[in-house]
Each structure stands twice: as structure tokens, then as C-alpha cells.
Write a structure and sequence with these properties.
Layout: E1 2-15, E2 18-31, E3 35-39, H1 46-53, E4 61-66, E5 69-70, H2 76-86, E6 87-90, H3 102-112, H4 121-130, H5 146-158, E7 164-168, H6 176-193, E8 197-200, H7 204-207, E9 212-217, E10 220-226, H8 235-245
Parallel strand pairs: 3-8, 3-9, 6-7, 7-8
Antiparallel strand pairs: 1-2, 1-4, 4-5, 9-10
């Protein structure tokens, strides 16, 4: 079942009198339960695509279908509600609130939606267990390492049981050891939560954890790689493709 789809998605930016094409007619679909990585050279349109997928920006033409709904037919308030209930976000710089505890940061999407932490305590505790932070539930972000803060962000992304989780360079601010642990956690969380993940990354090692990799160049999808069983995509194969695209 397709949970996210784009049709002829195009995004133009104006720089003075010059129109810059960030995306040029992208057709893209994600099946339920997939872990998809988006790669490409700098300026290829990766972040633009992710922002459009999450309803954080509007296309110049084409459409995004999220949970079966065309975003172009929805008003700003409707998109906000759809995003709040159907999409989880993981950012490179965690975006945790410094005055909140780990539990409260995980619960933030629920609190914004007017829900009670008490009602969802079991869900919050389950996610903290999954990300191995049960003993840090009452700690604030400045009492956590970078890797631990990203684990909080992952738990937060899944707290509303979203249709899809969008991750923007989730290991870009971490050392290799912490980054590897986060990627293993994403794969485990995807499996245990039966979740769908789309991740933008420039790192071939990070992309190798995905089931499928979509490569962008000059705003267009130019190549796909599929994983081998449960082992993901070989890093060497990813690097060969990236090397060709960056020539």
C-alpha cells in the first residue's frame, strides 16, 4: 500500500530575475513499511523534496499525496493537522526544548495536540524503553549526549503513531559510533513499530541501512538502488553511483 506519493512535483525558486529549478517533475512513491533513503550531490533537491513531502513547503506545480490526501486541495490549517497526526520528523540538530525533560520532549506532539501525558504514559514509556532511555526520563537535554538527544527525537517522531517518519540528515551531527547506533535504532524502530521512513542523507554508510535508495541530480530522480534482503544496500555500490553523479 502506498502511503506517500508525488506526481510531477516541481519547485522553482526566484533569485532576482533568474528562476532556479530545485525539483523538475519528480514522480516518487513509498510503500507502507519501507525505509527509503534520498541521496544526491549538493544542490540536487534532496532537502526541498523532503520539505515538500512533509507539507513544510508548497510546490510550484504537481502534488504530494500523504495518507491518500492531495496536499494541494488542503488549506494551511488542514495541512498542519494532517502533518501533526500523520507525519513524524527527525532533524539533524534534534530540536528539543531545553526546559522540558526527556519524557516531556517525547510527548510534545501530544501536548501540542491538546492531549494529556498521563493518558499516553504507557506509549511514552514504551518508546523510552525502545530507545534505551528509560533511566533518562527526567533528564533535560543539557544532561544528555548528542546521541541520547537524537534518541529522544526519534521517540518523539513515533509518539503519534505516524503514517510516515521523515528524517533530515539524522546522523549528520554525530560521530561515527553514535551515528551507527542511531541508524540501527531507526531500523529496529521501523520493524517494531511497523513504520515507514524516508531519510535524506549525504552519507553512503547511513543510506546503506535503507531498503531502497533514490538518487537525485539537478532536481530529477536519475537512479534507484534496492537493498539485498535485510542487509540494505552495499556501501561500495552507493559510492559508485554517487561518484558518477558528482562528475
Amino acid at each position: 500500500m502506498i502511503v506517500l506519493e508525488t506526481r510531477q512535483l516541481t519547485k522553482l525558486y526566484r533569485m532576482g530575475e533568474v528562476a532556479v529549478t530545485a525539483l523538475a517533475g519528480v514522480d516518487f512513491a513509498v510503500e507502507r513499511g519501507e525505509f527509503v533513503a534520498i541521496m544526491g550531490p549538493s544542490g540536487s533537491g534532496k532537502s526541498t523534496l523532503l520539505h515538500l513531502l512533509g507539507g513544510l513547503d508548497t510546490p510550484t506545480s504537481g502534488d504530494v499525496f500523504l495518507a491518500g490526501q492531495p496536499l494541494s486541495k488542503l488549506g494551511d490549517d488542514e495541512i498542519t493537522r494532517l502533518r501533526r497526526h500523520k507525519v513524524g520528523f527527525i532533524f539533524q540538530f534534534y530540536n528539543l526544548l531545553p526546559t522540558l525533560t526527556t519524557s516531556e520532549n517525547v510527548a510534545l506532539p501530544l501536548l501540542i495536540d491538546g492531549k494529556s501525558m498521563g493518558t499516553y504514559r504507557q506509549r511514552i514509556d514504551e518508546l523510552l524503553r525502545l530507545v534505551n532511555l528509560s533511566d533518562r526520563a527526567d533528564h533535560r537535554p543539557d544532561q544528555l549526549s548528542g546521541g541520547q538527544q537524537q534518541r529522544v527525537a526519534i521517540a518523539r517522531a513515533f509518539v503519534n503513531d505516524p503514517e510516515i517518519v521523515l528524517a533530515d540528515e539524522p546522523t549528520g551531527n554525530l560521530d561515527s559510533h553514535s551515528g551507527g547506533a542511531i541508524l540501527e535504532l531507526l531500523r529496529t524502530t521501523r520493524r517494531e513499530m511497523e513504520a515507514t521512513i524516508v531519510m535524506v542523507t549525504h552519507d553512503p554508510r547511513a543510506a546503506s541501512y535503507a531498503d531502497r535508495i533514490v538518487f537525485l541530480q539537478d532536481g530529477r530522480i536519475v537512479y534507484h538502488l534496492a537493498g539485498q534482503d535485510t542487509r540494505g544496500v552495499p556501501v561500495r555500490q552507493i559510492m559508485r553511483v554517487m561518484g558518477k553523479l558528482e562528475l
